Amino acid sequence: MVEEALDNGLLRYLSRDEIVRGGVEMYGPDFFFIPNAHWFIVREDEATITIGNRGGNGMRLVIPRKYLVKCLRKPEYYGDGIYVSDPRYYVLSIGEEPEGDLRKYIEWGVSMGIPA
What we know:
The chain is of the alpha+beta class. The chain is built from 3 helices and 8 strands, in the order H-E-E-H-E-E-E-E-E-E-H.
């Protein structure tokens, strides 16, 4: 299994004796990952995710799924097995000018200084 992952670029190695795990190190996890310290998932459907602000202001935003990619968050969240049926997290993937509630989410984050 490890050899297949190495061959497919899912892991990389410095030498055959030292494997380096793949992944992303990200600054601003309380912005780019959802849910996070400021937002929770209220509802999910096929096209959108509705998130709510934990700050008590009652703000709800609807984010199109085209801006979200399911992801594993921290290894300790998945210590019970190798297969994870629902990682319960999304990472923002913005490749175009954001619209609607995604723009509001970004403006909120910038005003709070979170993505910096």
